[in-house]
Amino acid sequence: NNAGLIEKARFFEADVVVLDVEDSIPPSEKERGRDMAREAIPRVADSGADVYVRINDFTTGWAHLDLEAVVQPALAGIVLPKAESREHVVLLEKKLFELEHRLGLPIGHTKIQCIIETAKGVWNAYECGIASPRVNSLVFGAVDYTRDMRVELTKEGPEILHARSHTAIAARAAGIVAIDPPFPSFSDV
After folding, report:
1. What is the mean pLDDT of the segment spanning 157-181?
2. Which residues, including other chains, have CB under 8 Å from residue 117's CB and lie 6 or more apart?
3. Is 82 left (phi over 0), alpha (psi -120 to 50) or beta?
4. Residue 75 carries which DSSP code?
5. Is the confidence at residue 2, as pLDDT, over 90?
């Protein structure tokens, strides 16, 4: 919901830009955030980046609204937060199939990136990775994972070593890309 940040994304020369309508958007701004993401997708894609949108997870009641708003030809993929099971991925795949069919997009056009950020998600990471041919990567989400585990995330990170490694192994076994967690202390860089 920040037009300035969205415009900046066009000039980073990134391979992938993820527009967020999940955690960075307060509930009262969700509709505005969706509208801004929908309008920004083609502009950001014109910069050469693959554009993904991180939607709200299906337990929130907002995921279907997010998908209805953002799926379009310029969208490369959806980031699925709190992916915990094959069923989560299949639910998203079915909705993407429906939207692609309705919009006349090639079936399979919209890829899926799963964020593994709970104990259950780590346990089922491989199953998430092979649940659909649309899944191209698993991202380990350290902040929400440590929150789920009720431990503190430290700079050294021993509390995430097992889950981080397991997610990378699951991605490799599934034949997809493993993406390390974002570094949350950006002011330390």
Report:
1. 96
2. 81, 82, 140, 141, 142, 143, 144, 145, 148
3. left
4. E
5. no
